[in-house]
Amino acid sequence: MKQLSQTLSRKDAEKRIPEVRVEIDTELAVLHQALIKKDYKTIKLCKQKLEELRREMLLLEI
Predict the structure, then answer these.
(1) Interval 17-47: pLDDT, tens
(2) Which of 12, 16, 34, 50 is 20 to 30 A from 59, comparing alpha carbons?
(3) What is the chain's alpha carbon radius of gyration, rounded to the nearest angstrom?
(4) CB 46: neighbour CB atoms within 10 A?
(5) Which superkingdom does the taxonomy of this entry point to (predicted)?
């Protein structure tokens, strides 16, 4: 039973990894625009979101 659960988790992770990569790319684009505009509030929010996505990606790749 535990092995089945792990297998399902891996399949979910395999599906989620490309989604997280797209989210990271999108957030980086938003961050780039915020840096150009010197929008410090958006810069801070983007950095926080990117940190969350980075943690999630690390967990998914383990």
Answers:
(1) 999 999 999 999 999 999 999 999 999 999 9
(2) 34
(3) 15
(4) 21
(5) Bacteria
